[in-house]
Write a structure and sequence with these properties.
The chain is an alpha+beta fold and 453 residues long. It has helices at residues 20-26, 40-52, 61-76, 89-102, 122-127, 158-165, 180-190, 197-210, 261-268, 337-354, 397-405, 410-413; strands at residues 5-11, 32-35, 79-82, 109-114, 148-153, 170-173, 238-241, 247-250, 278-279, 284-286, 291-294, 300-303, 306-308, 313-333, 361-367, 385-394, 418-419, 429-440, 447-452. α3 (61-76) packs across α4 and α7 (180-190) crosses α8. The protein starts with a strand and ends with a strand.
């Protein structure tokens, strides 16, 4: 058993800094790089891409990234774990193998964890009495059954652990919890009992700190953000993990950003509900038990984490088509910029009403004035410019389409001093809605395969 492992955060979402994993590999020693690509909406996007092309459905940044990472992996011996396999981890594996062949790299083992995608099994599950009702509203899934775009179970760390046991250098998964990407190598390297809930919670907390990339090392910091050094060259966080569950959060030397009790604390409270009851497939972590301690420059010790037994359920993230939306914008200049923008909004709403269009929602923002703060925005005098941004949502495609035709006419038939219309008429886009549900763990079977090139 190793005395310590270093797990580096490489991506916080699909679209994060593409160089971050490479920098983590180049700037110092790490044992693992974990890359979190998935959000709820990402799964529906990937599912739609796969329907158009069966070779798609994964984060297609990954093969491009692997051209740079694979040589470093062979040289330095670290492993990569990512949920960027999306809804098609097999295709992602094949694409990486092609990259390896092009680089003349052999002896590479890739593990794939599948079984999270239950979209094609929905009817069978319902017939067995597994209702998949909305866990927030209680509504029956039958109300959206014909509109479902994706349905993925949040698996835990176990499948990744199995792939590592089989010698995988890269582990690709579909919808595995963000925290599981970090917890899994700790279980594997330290031989942790997965029924030791305190250790599971300690690894889960470490995963929560790493999952958003640079957000734990000074990015998006709400405290004294002006004091964060060299954000242009921010170093993503690294978890130095120990067998007893203690973790030290740090980053590579000579990189920008900051790891402090404050930056780590802010990440810890990101996207959590009841802090005593942070539920994952692997355990329930008590965030109120977490102790943080300054351990030196860019080092924060995390310890004392307590956990409770995991629940008998997995969470299911489903998405469905819920109509259409479109957004348009125009910029109004000084003088009377805000007054002009408000007048244009009133004119447009009147015209939409006169056309008897069917909208579930019309929303207006005056950017530069209230886009962030809505009704509690401070009154400002004579702004230099204000952007009118207005959007509509409807089940009726034609109504949304007609809305897009009404923006440009405001230029010559509305208030003066207007600019900023570019790119053509706003076009309707699909509204993807979220449907959370629970499923018994006994109804889900994940599968692990490991192949070598």
């Amino acid at each position: 058993m190793k005395e310590k492992i270093r797990i580096a955060s490489g991506q916080g979402f699909w679209g994060d800094l593409i160089d971050a994993p490479v920098k983590q590999a180049e700037n110092g020693d790490v044992d693992y790089i974990m890359m979190d690509y998935l959000a709820e909406v990402t799964m529906s996007i990937l599912q739609k891409q796969k329907l158009k092309n069966p070779e798609f459905g994964y984060a297609r940044d990954i093969p491009v990234l692997m051209k740079r990472l694979l040589p470093l992996m062979k040289k330095k011996g670290f492993k990569v774990i990512t949920n960027g396999g999306g809804v098609n981890p097999i295709a992602c594996k094949n694409a990486i193998f092609e990259v390896a062949k092009s680089l003349g790299i052999s002896g590479l083992k890739i593990g794939v964890v599948s079984g999270d995608d239950i979209l094609d099994d929905i009817d069978n599950l319902i017939s067995k009495g597994i209702e998949l009702n909305n866990m927030e509203s209680g509504e029956s899934v039958s109300s959206v059954r014909g509109k479902l775009l994706s349905a993925n179970v949040y698996l835990g760390a176990a499948g990744i652990v199995e792939a590592l046991k089989q010698g995988a250098d890269i582990v690709l998964t579909g919808r595995v919890t963000d925290t599981g990407l970090t917890l899994a190598p700790m279980i594997y390297e330290f031989g942790w009992d997965m029924n030791n809930w305190d250790l599971m919670a300690a690894g889960t907390v470490a995963g929560h700190i790493l999952e958003c990339g640079g957000q734990a090392s000074g990015g998006n910091f709400l405290g004294d953000w002006k004091s964060i050094p060299d954000l242009a060259r921010i170093g993503f966080p690294i978890a130095e993990a120990y067998p007893d569950g203690t973790v030290v959060i740090t980053k590579h030397e000579n990189t920008g950003g900051l790891v402090s009790v404050e930056t780590v604390s802010e990440q810890l409270v990101y996207e959590i509900g009841d802090p005593k009851d942070y539920i994952t497939p692997d355990c329930i972590a008590d965030f109120t038990s977490i102790h943080l301690e300054d351990a030196g420059k860019n080092k924060v010790k995390v310890f004392g984490v307590k956990g409770l037994p995991s629940t008998p359920f997995y969470k299911v993230s489903m998405s469905y088509l819920d109509g259409y939306s479109a957004f348009g914008s125009l910029t109004y200049c000084w003088p009377d910029a805000l007054e002009k923008a408000k007048a244009a909004d009133e004119i447009l709403r009147t015209r939409l009403s006169d056309l008897n269009l069917n909208f579930e929602e019309i929303r207006t923002e005056f950017q530069g004035y209230n886009a962030c703060h809505q009704g509690i925005a401070n009154k400002i005098d004579e702004p230099n410019e204000v952007v009118l941004r207005i959007g509509v949502r409807s089940k009726d495609y034609k109504s949304v389409e007609r809305f897009g035709m009404e923006i440009a006419p405001l230029i010559l038939t509305g208030p003066p001093g207007v600019t900023g219309f570019a790119g053509g008429r706003p076009k309707p886009s699909e509204v993807v809605a979220y449907w959370p549900a629970l499923i018994p763990k006994t109804a889900v079977n994940y599968k692990v395969t490991v192949e070598e090139i």
